[in-house]
């Protein structure tokens, strides 16, 4: 009796007769030999059919199978150093095949396709090895994120998705009709987590987040997943220490569990191995100086234009890209001008124009993966900030209450899952890190 196995465990079955349920990824023929690349959702392996062994009829059937035909294959597992696969190095000597559906004209062929065509066929493109590998890495990153916080004393708590008001600026909200009242899809769970920490100390939420930004960059999605820890009795230094431990844990865990997939993606693993604490910390002031120095040194007029910046401006992608090229690890940039950040950030002592914010920028040009800050803990300062940002104070009364009933210094951050997946996988565009991405121009499939 053959044992039914999954390809990711094939190494454990060398010399045994096994059954695999899956799909035909591709096949090639060399005289009396037919090589069928099989995938089953957990990996890819090579099936080898030898005409004299399996007979004319089965060989003919295999020859006529189209890409993505569904089938059940039985055969004996062999080691073969040169056999391609994920994991590579194994193959199955085919003995029997049960065809569930023979497919003709599968739209995605091994030839090159344009990105729009592939995104229109995202429901099928997900089966391609590269997309498959990215989703496997994503699942592992997600699990590592949850494990880190669960193992470090954080309570997982869910924050609402339908919200009455803005938290990160009003320009990026998706509006919802809430029983004839205006409501919005959540941009962040942070404000609710600030209530939660006063009840539970250390919490995190992890869920979908919505931004109606009209950006077409390779870093923006309209729907993305964000993990947001919030910590009572934590200042900016404590926050940075937590972030570097957390990000290093996620990278090293993913590297250990998804080596095959990352290697398949062609990722330079030594770059990921280097991600260990501590991370460099520079102030916004220093970051501006560094960018201006890079700008002064460039002879390319277009680049000079892109890198223009004055103190007080927010960084754009070109600034972040050039800055992160100077470091092998993610770099903290702290103390941004208050005017480019959200209303709730604690002012810098003695410098009210600066706030106790910190962004973490990923290396190799990936840019911001975390935004966070120490939060304002004084009720009067907070009320003044809400008014300065022209936010309706009646929506924020509960948030002010938190500063009136046992206010404590507290901090938190948000890490974008998809940007983190893009960096760890070395993916050029964020849309490939979401199974069904929502972008400015795409709602289908
Ligand atoms: O910097 P952001 O806007 O921070 C917040 O929302 C805070 N309330 C978080 C907190 O302190 N609890 O977003 C945090 C992260 C970014 O660094 C980025 O990784 C990701 O969320 N992000 C996006 N990812 C994909 N597409 C977008 N449009 C994103 N906007 C933010
Ligand atoms: Mg940000």
Report what the structure shows.
By secondary structure, the chain is of the alpha+beta class. The protein has two domains: 3-101, OB fold (Dihydrolipoamide Acetyltransferase, E2P); 122-433, 2-Layer Sandwich (BirA Bifunctional Protein, domain 2), CATH 3.30.930.10. The chain has 15 helices and 19 strands. It has helices spanning 51-54, 56-64, 115-120, 122-125, 129-150, 190-200, 236-257, 259-264, 269-273, 284-297, 301-306, 317-324, 379-388, 397-401, 417-425; strands at 3-4, 17-30, 33-39, 44-50, 70-79, 90-101, 155-156, 162-163, 175-178, 181-185, 202-210, 223-232, 281-283, 331-334, 347-348, 351-355, 357-362, 367-374, 410-416. It has an eight-stranded mixed β-sheet with strand order 7-11-12-19-18-17-14-13, with helices on both faces. Helix 5 (129-150) packs across helix 7 (236-257) and helix 5 (129-150) packs across helix 15. The chain is elongated and about 85 Å long. The model has no long low-confidence stretch (mean pLDDT 97). Bound molecules: 4-amino-1,4-dioxobutan-2-aminium adenosine-5'-monophosphate and magnesium ion. The site of magnesium ion has 3 residues, from strand 18. 4-amino-1,4-dioxobutan-2-aminium adenosine-5'-monophosphate is lined by residues 168, 188, 190, 211, 213, 220-221, 224, 226, 228, 368-372, 412-416, 418-419.
Task: Please report which band the strand proportion falls in: under 5%, 5-15%, 15-25%, 25-35%, 35-45% or over 45%.
Answer: 25-35%
- Uncertain segments are none
Kindly name the structural category: alpha+beta
Number of domains: 2
**In CATH's first tier, which class of the largest domain applies?**
Alpha Beta
CATH topology of the largest domain: BirA Bifunctional Protein, domain 2
Q: Strand order across the biggest sheet? A: 7-11-12-19-18-17-14-13
Measured between the Cα atoms of the first and last residue, the distance is 42 Å
- Assembly type of the chains comes to single chain
> How many helical stretches?
15
The hetero compounds bound to this protein are: 4-amino-1,4-dioxobutan-2-aminium adenosine-5'-monophosphate, magnesium ion
Whole-number radius of gyration? 26 Å
Question: What is the CATH superfamily of the largest domain?
Answer: Bira Bifunctional Protein, Domain 2
């Amino acid at each position: 009796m053959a044992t039914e196995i999954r390809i990711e465990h094939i190494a454990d079955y060398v010399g045994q007769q096994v059954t695999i349920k899956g799909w035909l990824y591709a096949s090639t023929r060399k005289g009396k030999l037919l090589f069928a690349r099989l995938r089953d959702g957990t990996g890819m392996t090579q099936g080898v059919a030898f005409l004299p062994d399996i007979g004319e009829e089965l060989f003919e059937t295999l020859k006529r199978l189209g890409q993505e035909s569904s089938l059940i294959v039985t055969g004996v597992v062999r080691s073969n150093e040169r056999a391609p696969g994920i994991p590579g190095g194994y193959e199955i000597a085919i003995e029997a095949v049960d065809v569930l559906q023979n497919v003709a004209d599968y739209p995605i062929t091994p030839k090159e396709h344009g990105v729009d065509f592939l995104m229109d066929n995202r429901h099928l493109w997900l089966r391609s090895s590269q997309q498959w590998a990215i989703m496997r890495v994503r699942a592992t990153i997600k699990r590592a994120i949850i494990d880190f916080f669960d193992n470090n004393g954080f309570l997982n708590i869910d924050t609402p998705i339908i919200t009455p008001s803005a938290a990160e600026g009003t320009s990026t909200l998706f509006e919802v009709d809430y029983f004839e009242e205006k409501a919005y899809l959540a941009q962040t769970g942070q404000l609710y987590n600030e209530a939660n920490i006063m009840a539970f100390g250390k919490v995190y939420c992890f869920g979908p987040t919505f931004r109606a930004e009209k950006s077409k960059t390779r870093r923006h999605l309209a729907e993305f997943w964000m993990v947001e820890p919030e910590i009572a009795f934590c200042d900016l230094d404590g926050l940075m220490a937590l972030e570097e431990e957390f990000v290093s844990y996620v990278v090293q865990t993913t590297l250990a569990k998804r080596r095959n997939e990352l290697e398949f993606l062609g990722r330079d693993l030594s770059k990921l191995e280097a991600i260990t604490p501590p991370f460099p910390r520079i102030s916004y002031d220093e970051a501006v100086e560094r960018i201006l120095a890079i700008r002064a040194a460039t002879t390319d007029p277009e680049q000079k234009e892109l890198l223009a910046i004055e103190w007080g401006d927010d960084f754009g992608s070109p600034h972040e890209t050039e800055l992160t090229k100077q470091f092998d690890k993610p770099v903290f940039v702290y103390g941004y001008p208050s005017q480019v950040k959200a209303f709730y950030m604690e002012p810098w002592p003695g410098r009210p124009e600066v706030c106790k914010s910190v962004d973490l920028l990923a290396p190799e040009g990936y840019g911001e993966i975390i935004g966070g800050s120490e939060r304002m803990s004084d009720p009067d300062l907070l009320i003044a900030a809400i008014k300065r940002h022209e936010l309706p104070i009646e929506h924020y009364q509960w948030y002010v209450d938190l500063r009136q009933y046992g206010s404590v210094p507290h901090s938190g951050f948000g890490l974008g899952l998809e940007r983190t997946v893009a960096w760890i996988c070395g993916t050029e565009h964020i849309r490939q890190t979401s199974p069904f991405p929502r972008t400015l121009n795409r709602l289908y499939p």
